[in-house]
Structures are given as structure tokens and as C-alpha cells.
Amino acid sequence: MPMRRLWLFLLIPVLSLLAGTGCAEVSTHGYVQRNNYLDQPDVRTFIDKMVKEYDFSRDDLDRLFAQAKEQTRVLSAIASPAEAKPWYDYRPIFLTSRRIDQGVTFWDQNATTLQEASQLYGVPPEIIVAIIGVESFYGRRMGGFPVFDTLVTLSFDYPPRAAFFRRQLAQYLVLTREEHIDPLTPKGSYAGAMGRGQFMPSSYREYAVDFDTDGKRDLWHSSADAIGSVANYFKRHGWEQGMPVAVPANLDGNVSNYQALLDSGVKPSISLSRLEQQGAHPTKPFDFKGDVSLFALEGQMVPEYWIGTKNFYVITRYNHSKLYAMAVYQLAEAIKEQYQQAHKDSNKKPEGNQG
What CA–CA distance (Å, rounded) separates 223 from 106? Predict the structure, then answer.
């Protein structure tokens, strides 16, 4: 047996022994795995902060963190998000006949609540429905990862975004105390997002509303709370009632002439009239005079060019991805078209016998 193989052969039992002793070990992702979080200095520092800044009981937090279990699947999932796909692969995930059909059904089942939320917050029902459809398939897929374990894993085993997830973990603990929820009970996404609208803990605390007025904000079980919370989130981030969202564009001349605009992101930075003067034109009537953005999506054969308004940018505040925002917008339009057609057909009176 070659010396290198002999060395590895002898080392395997030692590694196996260490894996069962509570020592740290190296994961397949290159990050340190924790088998006993409570023994880690960074976790002790976090607990100290929660006791000092939020008046938590140290004993309670010690008992809680002693039960934390690393979620290795979380580290795999967060390393390959769907938003890393090209648009032509991303779009078919969400623009399906089943998701559109179920969106129409969800709208029918919650029509009164959607109308009330739309009137109160100024956000169209189809946008609210599409967000819930993309995020959780209308409450059917809210995630199966334990939220506490997920946030602990990402806070202490995922260095690239540890600071962000530690803030979310702190907000989660405060949230569960405020809402009288056992922190070990909720389940969510691989990033710790929760409920039908998949709110991160900080967003849950800041934007969730008790829209069914039952005395609690429950984004897991209450469609009304989810609808109101999504609408409130959009309103608070600047959604403007009646403003269009986006329109396909044609570009005159060489694409390189527009590269600076294409690279500037989806936050509106140029007036539509100025953009048209430079040779970028909507492909269909677009009744809008304000500032817009110009962006590209990766089509299967050639890029798609789009003009987006402030409302398109607001959708990206929910998820900072133009792919996500476009999927929400196109799903919303498809659901609205089918919903209106279904109700138009249902309102047709049957014809009587002729003759």
C-alpha cells in the first residue's frame, strides 16, 4: 500500500472518533462545523449581546443553544441559489400553468381580503398573489428547515454572510418572544425566511401586520395576515399606485452604446423621454413619463432588453434580483389575465332557445 494511502487509512478511525466527541470538524464546504454550539466563543459572545441589549435570560439562551443542530443542507442550498441561473432557466420555475391556475384559485378564495389590502396599501391584487405564489406556492411550500437551527448554522458556520445572519438570529429571538412562539417550532426556508410571504425575521418584525385582527401576526396559517403583510411591505418600500412596472425594449444601434445604463442596475436613473432620445424604445404603448432603468435578461438565443420603473425596483426590495422581480411581474400579469377572463366568462348569461 502506498505511504499516502496508508496514512489516510490510519487517519480515518481517528477522524471518526473526533466526529463523535463534540469537537469541530471541517465540512465539505470548507467551513467549520459545530457539533456543540454552546462551547464556541463566538456563540458565547452572541449570547452576551442578547442578554445585555435585549434583556434575555442567559440560562434560557444557554438551554436553547445547547439544543441547536447544524443544518448541513442549508450550507449546500445557500451556495447555489436559483437566482444564479440564467433567465431562460429561471423563468420556467415560476411561470407554469399550475402556478398560474393556483394563483387564480387563491385570488378567488381571498378576493375580499385582497381587495381590502389593495385599497388600503395601493398595491394591485395580482402583485400580492404573485409574491405569495413565488415565495411559497400559496402557502403549500413554506420550507422544512428549523428556523432557529438554520439561522444558527448560517450565523456561525457561514463566514461570507455571518454578520447578516447574526442580526437575523437576534431579530428572530426577539420576534418569537414578542409573538409568544417557541423558537424551536417554526420551519422555513434554507435562509431562515418564514411563512406564506417568506419574511426574514427583521422584515417580519417590521412589516408583518395582523390583517385578520385576531390579535397576532401569523404568516404561516393566516392568508389574510400574509396578504396584508406583503402589501404593507410594498407600500413601505415606495410602491406607487397606478404606476406601470416594466415593458420590453428595442435598442437602436450598437448595444455597447447603452452599456453604462445596462450596468447601472434597476434603480431608475434616467427619464423615459431621454432614454428614447438615446434610441431605446418600448415595444408597446407605455403610458409613463418618469425616470426608468434599462436592463437585460439572458435569453436562450439573444438578450431580452427591458425598461423598468420605480415599481419594478420596489419588487427587487423583496428579493434583490431582477430575475426574481421579472418572474413576479410576469406571473402577476398571467394570473390577472386568467382571473379576468374566468370572471368575464362566468358573467356571460346562457343564451335561450331560438325559435
Answer: 9
Question: How many whole angstroms separate alpha carbon 17 and alpha carbon 19?
Answer: 5
Report which of 275, 337, 336, 338 is spatially closest to residue 306, judged by C-alpha positions. 275
State the residue for C-alpha cell 466527541. 21
Strand partners, 187: 146
Residue 211, pLDDT > 60, answer yes
DSSP state of 354: P
Q: Report which residue type is found at 175.
A: L
Return the active site residues: 135
DSSP-based three-state secondary structure for 267: coil
Please give the C-alpha separations between residue 29 and each of 71, 77, 159, 320, in angstroms, as whole numbers: 12, 11, 11, 25
Mean pLDDT, range 148-166, rounded to an integer: 97
* CA gap 39, 134 in Å, rounded: 39
pLDDT reading at 232 higher than 70: yes
Task: Give the N- to C-terminal CA distance of the chain in Å, as an integer.
Answer: 98
Q: What is the pLDDT, as a whole number, of residue 349? A: 54
